[in-house]
Amino acid sequence: MIENYLLEELVAFAETGTLAKTAAALNVTQPTVTRGMQKLETDWEVQLFDRQPNRLSLTPAGELAAKEAATLLAANHQAVERVRNFAHSRRVLTIATTVPGPLVALKYIQAQLPEHTQLPGASQPEDQVIAGLKNNDYLLGFSNHSLSTEAIDSQLIGTEHLAINLNQFMFQANQSTITFAELKDLSFVVPSDIGP
Which residues pair with 51 in a beta bridge? Predict the structure, then answer.
């Protein structure tokens, strides 16, 4: 197994182009970086560097190794974040929503929710909520339709209805039903965010 510090050195070298700049970027000595690069070549049994007098550069295999190292470091970082978020979700109930309606209901029953509940400040785009649920940023999400995926299970908890109040002197108020076409040119006072 390759240690992260070796991968970090390789990625830093690919970005900076010199041992001195790599050492400075990582706050280590140049001989430390040189030993790390040699160890990496020995462990992988591949020549990663083209050594010329006063010049060190990556071979094509070294360039590929640097790209793969960057990918591995990013995956490692994401895994650590997912685990941390999961551990956090076990202590705190984090909620997200794609529609504003649940925010009103949750604020109304907030005293009945677990002590460590984090309510969202506003609704978010669906792709952000799905990504947050998959990454354990949120433990619970609300949407106006199913969000079921391999990692997410959805359950219908209710429906939301739109109602309007018409002035009793309007002819539409005396009808038993009304269409959106009949309401088309009327003005209404509504909350700033009523959802889709």
Answer: 56
Count the neighbouring beta carbons within 10 Å of the beta carbon of residue 12.
Answer: 21
CATH at residue 79: 1.10.10.10
Summarize pLDDT for 121-164 with one digit per residue, the tens: 788 888 888 888 888 888 888 888 887 778 788 888 877 777 77
Taken in order 42, 44, 50, 56, is the CA torsion positive or negative? negative
Among residues 162, 172, 193, which one has the least CA distance to residue 100? Answer: 193
Query: How many distinct structural domains can be found in the chain?
Result: 2
Of 167, 163, 119, 109, residue with least CA distance to 140:
119
**Digit-coded pLDDT (tens) for 66-107:** 999 999 999 988 888 888 877 766 667 888 888 888 888 888
